[in-house]
Design goal:
230 residues, alpha+beta, six-stranded antiparallel β-sheet, four-stranded antiparallel β-sheet, 5 helices, 12 strands, 23% helix
């Protein structure tokens, strides 16, 4: 009997499987159902490399804007055809050091007024800037790892540092930033939600999980999975 050769994965994807609206934010005159739109920012510790100036360079993946995810026409197909929100190359040019972390920062907006695209542009700019700032700070504080890295190459052992820096902005870490963002926007902006996967968490890949988003009286449930593409 011929042996099946192992085929190393080429990409890692964060895919959406379902969206449930348990409770709505909307008051009576706005209607009983929310109109929810989503995007995300993606961070991969392997592409946080030492820049020419000696500081960490932090690339950021920007997911497409999708919605209204409460509409069955949008979310219904995800059960059999999961939606790829973030997609990473597992073999980046700068090389890879382990452990490696991948973090998705979910951006959720409930639409009450016009200007949704502009709101997401503003949200991505502000949240992305804050996350990059925290990752640069954490990577710089790593000291020897950054000092010994070659310009343009992955920074040794930086994975947990990047994951912790992005994940550490959950909840209270975003309060002041979200208040600033909301002051100039017209829709309900939810606190960004970070979800991190480490290369050591092999049991997580290929299984469906849920994250609950509860704010402004709303309760949403998002089903997701980490998927290797071979």
């Amino acid at each position: 009997m011929a042996k099946t050769l192992y085929k190393a994965p080429k990409r890692l994807q964060f895919r959406l499987r379902h969206f449930l609206e348990h409770d709505s934010t909307d008051s009576g005159f706005q209607g009983g159902d929310d109109e929810v739109y989503m995007s995300a920012l993606g961070f991969d510790s392997a592409v946080v490399v030492k820049g020419a100036d000696g500081r960490p360079d932090v690339p950021m993946y920007i997911a497409p804007l999708i919605g209204d995810v409460t509409d069955n026409a949008v979310r219904g197909p995800w059960a059999t055809n999961p939606f790829v929100l973030v997609d990473w190359d597992l073999h980046p040019p700068g090389g890879v050091t382990y452990p490696r972390t991948f973090t998705v920062v979910l951006l959720v907006v409930e639409q009450d007024n016009e200007g949704l695209a502009d709101d997401f542009t503003h949200l991505i700019d502000k949240v992305g800037g804050k996350v990059r700032e925290k990752v640069v700070e954490a990577a710089t504080n790593a000291g020897d790892a950054l000092a010994t890295a070659v310009v343009g190459a992955a920074i040794p052992g930086i994975g947990p540092v990047v994951g912790a820096a992005v994940g550490g902005l959950a909840g209270d870490g975003y309060d002041a930033l979200v208040a600033e963002i909301k002051a100039g926007l017209h829709n309900e902006v939810f606190t960004p939600v970070p979800i991190t996967f480490s290369t050591g968490d092999h049991v997580l890949a290929g299984h469906e999980y849920s994250v609950h988003i509860q704010q402004f009286g709303a309760h949403y449930e998002l089903g997701y999975e980490w998927h290797y593409v071979r």
